[in-house]
Amino acid sequence: QVQLVESGGGSVQAGGSLRLSCTASGYTYSTYCMAWFRQSPGKEREGVATLNSYGLRSYADSVKGRFTISQDNAKNTLYLQMNSLKPEDTGMYYCAADRTGCVRPNYWGQGTQVTVSS
């Protein structure tokens, strides 16, 4: 059974940093595409960053140059380092995984809240 557990959210002032973590279990971690999504109040859920099984990374334009997705295969953990945070980065951040790709992942964590104040 695939399980994803996020942590690391919190409240921070604009310009600050946070690092989110997602610990995975129940599957061969390195063979899955991993991703971070977020949902802000009144908006649809959007993809923030992906890391596929080949190690290729992609980012939403809104976070390029500020966010970095990475992983520690030995710990089955995915990270999202978020720097220069803006109020518009506020939202619930979700970790997601899927064996076949990150466009519509099948597995999701419960989410961790990020709040950025101006």
Topology at a glance:
Blueprint: E1 3-7, E2 10-13, E3 18-25, E4 33-39, E5 46-51, E6 57-59, E7 67-72, E8 77-82, E9 91-98, E10 107-108, E11 112-117
Kindly estimate the percentage of residues that lie in beta strands according to DSSP. over 45%
> Which segments are poorly predicted (pLDDT under 50) over 5 or more consecutive residues?
none
- The number of helices is 0
- The helix/strand class is mainly beta
Give the CA-CA distance, first to last residue: 40 Å
Helix content: under 10%
SS elements, strand count: 11
Give Rg in angstroms. 13 Å
Mean residue pLDDT: 95
Q: Tell me about the biggest sheet?
A: 7 strands, mixed
Coarse morphology: globular
Order of helices and strands: EEEEEEEEEEE
Overall description:
There is one protein chain. This protein has strands at 3-7, 10-13, 18-25, 33-39, 46-51, 57-59, 67-72, 77-82, 91-98, 107-108, 112-117. Strand 7 (67-72) and strand 8 form a beta hairpin. The model has no long low-confidence stretch (mean pLDDT 95). The strands form two sheets. Strands 2, 4, 5, 6, 9, 10 and 11 form a seven-stranded mixed β-sheet that branches. A four-stranded antiparallel β-sheet has the order 1-3-8-7, with no helix packed on it. By secondary structure, it is an all-beta fold. The protein contains no helices and eleven strands.
